[in-house]
Specification:
2 domains; 262 residues; elongated
């Protein structure tokens, strides 16, 4: 209660009728990154008690689905699922609700049960957020967006790298509504990539042609990859350096002699 007395966002949530002070974190994230827009279909993972669901509905006025192991008290215009986000049964229920095209945005403000042991709580947070990312990859539309809460620690960088593999834009952000003493930070991923490759992947390719800008053009499963400093017909091993929604860039890491490719 002593903490609540000085907590502006706690009392603001009470006055404005939101279920939790966390509502303002989503407002602030969206104000900065424009993740949710009007008409979006949104799925909130680990949604109880529903503070982010209320904000998601207000921002989008579209289809909003909340998922949690606990029952979520009814919110007007919001559908809920009681289930485990790692279960294929739950994934199928989500898809049935949002449609086969998928969700425009997946959000997750869930936190693990805290033990007070920093290392253990960080590991549990990473495990939970990894499950949220894997779920998002199954239900997001191409070019969809992702917001997830993570506890900072020694595994955070690896998690960020994993998110970067799947989105064109990735950023870590701490909204003003987060408490100063909190170890939480939010990871924002925009423009979900459905390409058959990721940054740092390696492939053996043949340069099919030279593009107007002078870069070589190769294909990985019909996906266009631009490669610098090559000639038409070259057989090379490439490493992906950047991935965009419709094409990727790569550098040569090995060149094959003609006889090696016969």
């Amino acid at each position: 209660m002593a903490r609540h007395r000085k907590d502006t966002y706690y009392w603001r949530a009470k006055e404005e009728g939101y279920r939790s002070r966390a509502a303002y974190k989503l407002f602030q994230i969206n104000e900065k990154f424009k993740v949710i827009k009007e008409g979006d279909t949104i799925v909130d993972l680990g949604a109880a008690p529903g503070g982010w669901l209320e904000v998601a509905k207000k921002l989008s006025e579209g289809k909003v689905v909340g998922v949690d192991l606990r029952r979520i008290k009814e919110i007007e215009g919001v559908d809920t699922i009681k289930g485990d986000i790692t279960s294929d049964v739950t994934i199928r229920k989500i898809i049935d609700m949002v449609g086969e095209d998928g969700a425009d945005v997946v959000i997750c403000d869930a936190a693990p049960n805290l033990s007070g042991n920093w290392s253990l709580d960080h590991a549990r947070s990473i495990d939970l957020t990894t499950s949220a990312l894997e779920c998002a990859k199954k239900i997001l539309k191409p070019q969809g967006h992702f917001i997830v809460k993570v506890f900072q620690g020694d595994m955070f960088k690896d998690y960020m790298d994993e998110v970067r593999k799947n989105f064109t834009f990735t950023k870590a952000y701490s909204p003003h509504a987060s408490r100063d003493e909190s170890a939480e930070i939010y990871v924002i991923g925009k423009k979900f990539l459905t390409a058959p490759l990721h940054k740092n992947d390696e492939f053996d390719v043949v340069i099919n042609k030279i593009g107007d800008g002078g870069d070589g053009i190769a294909h990985v499963e019909d996906f266009v990859v631009f490669v610098k400093e090559v000639d038409k017909g070259d057989s090379v091993k490439i490493q992906i350096t950047d991935v965009k929604p419709n094409f990727a860039f790569a550098k040569v890491i090995e060149r094959y002699a003609e006889e090696e490719t016969k």
